[in-house]
Amino acid sequence: MNERIPMSRRAVLAATAAAAGAAALPTAAQPAPTTRHRVAIVTGSSRGIGAATAKRLARDGHAVTVNCVANRELAAGVVRDIERAGGRAIWVQADVSDPRAVQRLFDENERAFGGVDVVVSNAGVMRLAPFRDMSDEDFARMMDVNQKGSFQVLREAARRVRDGGRIVTLSSSITQLRTGTYGPYAATKAAQEIYAAILAKELEGRMVSVNALAPGVVNTTLFTDGKTPQQIAGFAQRTPHKRLGEPGDIADVIAGLCSRDGAWINGQTVFANGGIV
């Protein structure tokens, strides 16, 4: 007959502490991410949300590759700002709608910094018109940059981001607001939410967290160009805070997703819109 031998209270506490400690230790399948010596690529980062994100990630300790299509001086200025603050950065001209340019962007980053841990797919264009007035050229450009271009960035990120990394793609709260004239643009942003949800599952086992971030109305030229002051004020009044978001508001959320503390948010769409929806 088996005799049950009671454990002392001290033995129970010791066993519990040992189990907790073992669970907390990172394993080969669970690398412990850190911002020290980490590297980030931010597309469309010569101005607006992208520039704010590049600077914020640099402040958090990432070496950063800044990307532009035409705004070379602005991209170089972002790099100078990062370097003046004690960070490391380069800038690379590349149109994300061109798959060879995307590969070159990642290649240049790898040559400079040895690899990549964080990719923020931010590059995008917006053309607004009612369905009846939308030109083929404007529709095609949004599809090329926002939908196809982001796919190409995420595809390269899936191949190259190191285990324990982060991938963020920019959606938009317009997918919920569904305001007139935004139809095709909103469709390209809704695609980002599907991309993130599925890519997160495809990268299982690598501890890479993939999310879509959906800003609301943000004080950037992408939003304000072509709008009257009255229209802009009207959007601001729709938020509980009665203001537009600023690029730094969005960069702060992206930085949180890319930090160690953001690991458990995965395959989600995170809305950062001041409560407008």
Helix content: 40-55%
Globular, elongated, flat, extended or rod-shaped: what is the shape?
globular
N-to-C CA distance: 67 Å
What is the H/E order? Answer: HEHEHEHEHEHHEHHHE
Largest sheet: 7 strands, parallel
Number of strands: 7
Structural class: alpha/beta
Placed side by side, the strands forming the largest sheet appear as 3-2-1-4-5-6-7
Which percent band covers the strand fraction?
A: 15-25%
Low-confidence stretches: 1-36
Figure out the total of helices.
10
Describe it for me?
It is a single chain. The chain is α/β, with parallel strands linked by helices and 277 residues long. The protein contains ten helices and seven strands. The protein has helices at residues 9-24, 48-59, 72-84, 99-113, 136-160, 174-177, 183-202, 221-224, 229-237, 247-258, and strands spanning 39-42, 63-68, 89-93, 116-121, 161-170, 209-215, 269-272. A seven-stranded parallel sheet has the order 3-2-1-4-5-6-7, sandwiched between helices. Helix 2 (48-59) packs parallel to helix 3 (72-84) and helix 2 crosses helix 10. The longest helix is centred in the middle third of the chain and has 25 residues, at 136-160.
